[in-house]
Amino acid sequence: MAKLKLPVPPVPPQLKPLPKRPGKVYGPQTPIEHAGEAAATAVGWIDERTSLSGGARWMMFRKVPKGTNWFYTLGSATMFSFLSQAVTGVFLAMYYVPSSTRAYESIRTINNDVFLGEFVHGMHKWGSSMMVILIFLHMGRTFFFGAYKYPRELNWVIGVALLILTMTMSFTGYLLPFDQRSYWASIVGVNINGTGPLVGPYLSDFLRAGPNFGATTLSRFYAIHMLLVPGAIAALMGFHLFLVARLGTTAPPWVRAKSSEQLREEKVSS
Ligand code: HEM
What we know:
270 residues
């Protein structure tokens, strides 16, 4: 099988310096231009020692298929909603107390006393629904455009794992305010997990952190919600994006390929 190694794209013309014109003064003049020059020097210093710009160009400056449209932004939108959840989550974690006696009170403090607390809490709460909606829309786009087919099957499978992890985030986050609604809804959710074949009872035991639903359950949900699952999502997202850059995106189904499927497969395997 031929090696599918894509070359690093050349520096785009927009980023290349323009040729000098006689009679024009070059170099930074205003303080803002000096600041820009200093930033460019710092970036250049890092790049000379790491060669990271080649990787960044490889990731960002790519040719996309004809017919690429707004539906292709749904994956990035999902990623940005995750990043927003991560940032707002860090600020909430500074005030939230994962204790069965103090969790509810700490959420009230965030909403009523902390500067911009209600706003950040609201962003996190509504952002979670946003992420779930966006991930389903993105999955629908890849499904209807046939992007799950060869050679992108693995990226679909990683996507399924990301979907399960995103749902786990929603489920574990729901208990954290520890009010009546979240408490009883989480008991129902854990019991539903317990009805699963074979692993069900073990899964519900793991989620409850013991035979009874209580203080230990809250700590367990909190650890899963803010450490285990976001870490796994970040890692899988990185791999998902690597494969997108490696394989490129799929053309929309209405853009017809010039060569036949068979011919293309022969080319790849020769
Ligand atoms: C945290 C969740 C996810 C993030 C951040 C994410 C991000 C992305 C991004 C940025 C792309 C590039 C093209 C585009 O945006 O359409 C992409 C492509 C893709 N994603 Fe996702 N994705 C996620 C979840 C999923 C899920 C749930 C599935 C399916 C089960 C999936 C399957 C795919 C496939 C097959 C492609 C290749 C599309 C193509 O070749 O045109 N992704 N993803």
